[in-house]
Each structure stands twice: as structure tokens, then as C-alpha cells.
Amino acid sequence: IAPEGPTNVWSLAIDGTITEETITPEESFGLKSHPLTAVSGGDPTDNAAPMRALLGDKLPHDHPVLNFVLLNSAALLFVSGKVATLPEGVEAARESIRSGKALDALERFAAATQAV
User: Fold this and answer.
1) Mind listing the GO molecular function terms for this protein (predicted)?
2) pLDDT 10s digits, 71-108
3) pTM of the full predicted structure?
């Protein structure tokens, strides 16, 4: 989902009906829009510091990287049926970061991949 401007999405209902709509960070998620260049990454070392800050809940409320993660996490929570709306997904994702659950999940994932 684009952090700036519209994203076209299609929904498939149980009855087979396909609907198309356009979503934006502001109108659909309640998040500030940011240019794509504000969230472009670098090498793993460059990316590690912002990711640690994000998962440690140390980024400002409307930081571009945080909003990009919230956009896409909210969409995943919505399509999986964990939340009823995209804004609810934003709040659930934000709470996961605030509570440390997102960092804990990453640490468990890292430990599991190191064990393989």
C-alpha cells in the first residue's frame, strides 16, 4: 500500500462479487501521507536503527517509516479478519508496538531462524 497517494484495491466477497475501490493513507487509515522516498531503505545496517526505534516505540507518532508499517500491518489485520476496519487495524498495530508484542514477535522469529 502506497504511503503517498491512492492505492487501488479489489475485494472478493464470499458470493464471488468483486468490488474495486481506491484507498489513501489519510482517508482510509487516518494516517499522514509521506513520499515513497521517505520510506526507502538502504543496506541492512542502515535499516536496523530505524527498525529498532520503530519496534522500541521510539519514533514520532507520524514518522514516515512508522506510518508505512502501520498502513501495511493494518491492511493485513483487516484482510485476515482480525479487525473490522482499517483504522482499527492501525490502532491494533500501534498497540502491538507500544506494548512490546511486535518486538517480542521479531525476537522469537529471529531465535527460531537461528536454531534452524
Assistant:
1) anthranilate phosphoribosyltransferase activity
2) 999 999 999 999 999 999 999 999 999 999 999 999 99
3) 0.89
- pLDDT tens track for 43-58: 888 888 889 999 999 9
Q: Say which residues have a Cβ less than 8 Å from residue 103's Cβ, sequence separation at least 6.
A: 55, 56, 97
Residue 19 is inside which H or E element, if any?
Answer: strand 18-23
Residue 31: strand, helix, or coil: coil
Q: How far apart are the first and last CA of the chain?
A: 32
Separation between Cα atoms, residue 64 and residue 31, nearest integer Å: 10
